[in-house]
Amino acid sequence: MIAACRTVRTVALGLWAGGAIFFSFLTTPRIFHVLRDQLPHNPPPGVAGLTPEVGLRLAGDTVGAVFPSYFAAQIAVGAMAVGAGLLAGRHGRWSRSVLALSIVALAIVTLHGLTVYPHSTRILDEHYQAADAGDAARAASLRKTFGMWHGVSQMLNLVAILTVVVALVLAALPADDRAASAATPLRPWVEEFQAVEHRATGENAEEQLRLADQLRLGDLDRLE
Questions:
Q1: Do both 167 and 211 map to the same domain?
Q2: What is the tally of structural domains in the chain?
Q3: What is residue 135's three-state secondary structure?
Q4: What is the pLDDT of residues 76-117, one digit of tens each?
Q5: Contact, 88 vs 6, CB < 8 A?
Q6: Is the domain of 162 the same as that of 190?
Q7: Whether 119 and 213 share a structural domain
Q8: Is the Cβ–Cβ distance between 88 and 9 less than 8 Å?
Q9: How far apart are the C-alpha atoms of 163 and 61, rounded to whole Å?
Q10: Whether residue 179 has pLDDT greater than 50
Q11: What are the Cα distances from residue 205, in Å, to 86, 193, 209?
């Protein structure tokens, strides 16, 4: 049961880290590069009027359409990692640290998806409305405000990713069964005690049992 929980926890953290890294550092930059930088200078046949500004807006709308699923997927795998970590308990050297990091990352992603991202999206929508209405001053002010909130959003995303990666590295380390390692040096003493008890026959049985008790008490002293 514990081994299965550890496996589920590690898989969930791997999916979490891999998906977030792929979307944040590969997919999103590529979308902006193609729509904002590449296509306006080399538009496909039948497409006219595609300026870098229009491409930027299209790229933002495209990435924005994916963001709800991005946050939902992170919350799902994050909840899986936290749940598996709770079921795994304290077994393993880094279990508590992995669980704590998973909870912190899940809280960051949830806060990000429910507060910062929707707020920054509303500001961006207001910016485009002001720009379409010809209110250049308001559009510029809203653009500046959006840049600030977009920076906060990127920071939260980066902190969450780093937290998950650290948790994944710790979860992948070999488990340290301290209870088993502590009990191993006592096995020869226990075996000797059992052997003395087994040989306790004849006229010296009482003396042999007394020696066995001394061995047992010696083991208890070693445990202390």
A1: no
A2: 2
A3: coil
A4: 999 999 999 999 877 667 899 999 999 999 999 999 999 999
A5: yes
A6: no
A7: no
A8: yes
A9: 28
A10: no
A11: 51, 14, 6
What are 220's two structure tokens?
A: 């208890």
Are residues 19 and 48 both part of a single domain? yes
Residue 78 CA to residue 175 CA, distance in Å, equals 21
> Where a domain ends, among 176, 191, 213?
176
Residue 212: which residues within 8 A CB-CB, separation 6 or more? 193, 196, 197, 200
d(CA 139, CA 179): 64
User: Taking the mean position of all CA atoms in its chain, how far away is CA 28?
Assistant: 20
The confidence band for 15, taking pLDDT boundaries of 50, 70 and 90, is very high
Structural domain containing residue 190 = 181-223
Say yes or no: 85 and 194 in one domain.
no
Helical pair 95-111 and 52-88, crossing angle rounded to 10 deg: 140
In a shared domain, residues 52 and 73 = yes
Residues 139 and 153 in one domain: yes
- Spatial CA neighbour of 113 closest among 66, 72, 63: 72
> Which tens digit of pLDDT belongs to each residue from 53-77?
999 999 999 999 999 999 999 999 9
